[in-house]
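Input set for joint prediction.
Command: fold jointly, output tokens.
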Amino acid sequence: MNKTIETILDHRSIRSFQDKPLTREQIETIITTAQAASTSSFIQAYSIIGVSDQNKKDQLAEVVGNQPYVAKNGHFLVFCADLNRHAQIAEMENIDVIPSIESTEKFMVSVIDAALAAQNAAIAAESMGLGICYIGGIRNNLEAVQSLLKTPDYVVPLFGMAIGYPAKVNDKKPRLPLEHVYMENEYQQDTATFIKQLEDYNQVISAYYRERTDGKREDTWTEQIGQMLEKKSRMYMKDFVQNRKMDLR
Amino acid sequence: MNKTIETILDHRSIRSFQDKPLTREQIETIITTAQAASTSSFIQAYSIIGVSDQNKKDQLAEVVGNQPYVAKNGHFLVFCADLNRHAQIAEMENIDVIPSIESTEKFMVSVIDAALAAQNAAIAAESMGLGICYIGGIRNNLEAVQSLLKTPDYVVPLFGMAIGYPAKVNDKKPRLPLEHVYMENEYQQDTATFIKQLEDYNQVISAYYRERTDGKREDTWTEQIGQMLEKKSRMYMKDFVQNRKMDLR
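tokens >
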């Protein structure tokens, strides 16, 4: 196993950082690696907003709820799906790109582009001895995030990333069995096998929590995820995205 | 610069592979690294379908158009946004998850989850001396891909990834200037600066093509992307995704 694979497999979300800001050089290295990711047909449909202003970080921490590491970290990035520069292209080249950039296809392209870039940034940061945590919580209130970061139409902030020197390192949570996530030549057609895999995995997750909480917690994966999904979070998202003129047609 | 960052920065898409299949061990390493990526609230909302059946690979190559490396490579993966296992959870836990998994929010979560996993796979493969190429072209005809891979409702194949031993290595294309993609504390508010950055970048890209084609090609980035966007590709995507019961509300 090489060093890069070791770094990737050693990933865990870091939720407590030392009080030590990243240098400009570290930030530029991380952004440059993000930009090196593949991008659909060279479209480069994302932007990254670095938040260094402590007041803004505090406000973001409020938006996401109880996550102090959004305010306290070495640096904070917000990854955005971004077709705004492509809207500008229309004026520069005097052509109509609106049906295209308002399409579901291009929304997906911009979300995928942003995520590929982000994961490069995550791996690069971790390879430098830093820790990271993705912050989906910024989607709790994208109106607030948008007004804080002044993002225009054709831009949707997708998630944050807190980066910094780890103060506390958590355990890795076991993932779904490989044979459940990875299928050969066609999707798993046998529902009984599919459910059996989830049940076996439930035992693994239950044991994981039991061990780490002296038996206080022993919920299974399907219980945990089921409860989360039953709650219906962020149901305003369709309106928000479409008000930003994305995923419209 | 460490080895991992070198690997990330050295990325280029490989479109010609040696006739040498990946071993099962290599494939499992790649999938395991994919699974190590962050996943929103532990939801693990993606699946990966490995296509080894040469007949299916040939058919996929036909779907995407003129891309022979979809049929000829060391292995081919299809990354899918997948909330099907979460639909199963509803039955296992006897709860209602439908409004949640049919939401735009959860569609975004599943697309982001799949992309983060894919980029881990890409970096891992490259660190092993393999090359990769993302294949967005599978979205040219997702009905065909779906019937080939037998994916159920709540699953949307997003992109393929051809992996293998490189037969031919291309140059890296220069990315947008860092200061255009990376902004501090708020989105770039000055349109003139924004457009000036694109114009400067146009010079870089034009020179890049000129050098590599003996002056035969010298299109700018905004020309190239503008022409692509003017064409309106894959406008069926919204219907396809919603027919799969995702991004509905």
